[in-house]
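Suppose you are handed a protein chain with no further information: no name, no annotation, nothing but its sequence. What can you learn? This example shows the usual starting point.
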Amino acid sequence: MEDQHIVALLWERSERAIDSISRTYGSYCMSIAERIVCDREDAEECVNDAYLRVWETVPPERPQSLKAYLGTIVRNLAINRYRRVHTQKRSCDRVSELLDELTQCLPAQCDWDSLTDDMVIRNCLNRFLRELSSRERRVFVRRYWYADSVTDIAKLLHTKENAVYVMLSRTRQKLKEALKREGIVL
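A reasonable first move is to predict its three-dimensional structure. Written in structure tokens, the prediction is:
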């Protein structure tokens, strides 16, 4: 079902909208959440919470891309859930690993909640991603947006893990330089 039709159902407050979202984007949302929280039950809760959040925000929002809108909501909910679980016990360390990798090139005064709200940094990141080659951008997004493992990215690209590690390292260095050029203090 097309995004416009699902959004129209949401605007009509039709409960069929949630079923349509689940059928169309359920596996996409689960894959995002599971990579972050590393637990199927927690991932299912994140996805269900995301459906509720979409129900509550559309209307008044009218997303251009329902997939991107939903993916962002699921990702944020999963990161929040990961933080809550991780403070209580040691579990999957994937998110900590990703955040540690990016720490070197993110502003010192920045926390993850304010990062998404800061238009200057967001615009700089968007420009940076547009300047990357499609391969570099794909690797960067798969790693830091979708939380894919280096092993999974290497398989996807039919390359060695070491090549992915090197590409990510160089891309993070480019990001650090791009942020410095923009006057963003590291």
